[in-house]
Amino acid sequence: MLRSFRSLLFMYTIFVSQRIILTRAFSVQTSRKILTSATPPAASARFSSIFTERSSDHLNYSSQRRNLHSTPSNLQESSTMTSPEEKSYPLEMSEAERYLFDLNGYIIIRNVLTPEEVAEANDGIDKHQESMIERKENELRNAVKDTKFFGSGPGRKDLGGVLEWGKDSRIFKKILAHPRLVPLFHGILGKGYRMDHLPFVIAQDKGAEGFQLHGGTVDCNSGAYNPELAYTCYNGFIRSALLGCNVMLTDHDPGFGGFCVVPGSHKSNFKMPDGMVDGEKYSEFIQQPATKAGDVVLFSEGTVHGAMAWTPETQRRVCLYRFSPGTNVYGRSYFTENGKWPAKMYEDMNDAQRAVLEPPYANRLDRPEIQEDAESVKISTRNERKKKHDQEMFGTKYF
Predict the structure, then answer these.
(1) Of the candidates 298, 181, 187, 190, which has an alpha carbon nearest to the alpha carbon of residue 248?
(2) What does the radius of gyration of the chain's CA atoms come to, in whole angstroms?
(3) Which of 141, 213, 332, 347 is the one with CA 20 to 30 A from 65?
(4) How many angstroms separate the CA atoms of 19 and 15, rounded?
């Protein structure tokens, strides 16, 4: 009797367990169907896109960290796996990127430009290279003679007007709001960031001088505080008063020379020891990052940096931009024509690129802010009543 009862109880338990499993499976399927039907196709695709972009960023960045001390050829091999059409981009600066930028004062973003885009940019430079100006006079030299940064004698060559070349400016204009760079610009400068200096190409032939170390939140030469270059990080928010953006258009292998930096110097509280700015002393603390054509180096101007003499036969080429938060200003070229940059710069620009050319003013005063797609903008503004009040009181649209 007891055995029969136990058998019946065991069979009943199995029956109930199966019902529970079936019920849960049905509930999960129903939930998925409800979620799918309640989510518009476009929104569903958007969510999928966001997850894909963030996952891609994590994988790409992990690869960058793994290859930090690897040969550039390894970095180049990993960059050829994705075509331009298949690229996805992160929507915000990653925690790893924030940590490394805060730690070192600079960060390398690999493969921002494709090989085809690098070639297009160099073709544009080739068409205008007769306009390059070599720094021959002593007053224009960037390094002290007979120091490591001076090289064997030739001066550095500079080429301006890169945003005024019509179709030849396409790649250079793309950098202003490149989808890979916008999240970092927002993370370092804030929304509403702006171009502060006119960008230009730096070229060095073999033996050409570099540039002695300069910059620093605390000036590396004088020890004075540089508010116009300063780096700060408060409550998790990074801000750089002026951000350098080096777009590498040729390979910079170890020992080649070119851009160099003193990692962590954006947090230094003292001027440099004598001889260090010329590379004559403490050179082990001065690093030349290895980069490939298409990489971008973002560095706070509060980080002490410079350039080493160039050693290869091939000409070094890099396009240097400087960006700042929307309320900061160092340069004044935006005053060139009617309070704007040179008119030709605005040709064939999208809304996001034009937004970067705005003069300095607070975001709440109708500043266009670049959105996540790196193409559209949204105007940051005050309420209409306050704007009407200013008009009535001051007789102008803005106070």
Answers:
(1) 298
(2) 27
(3) 213
(4) 6
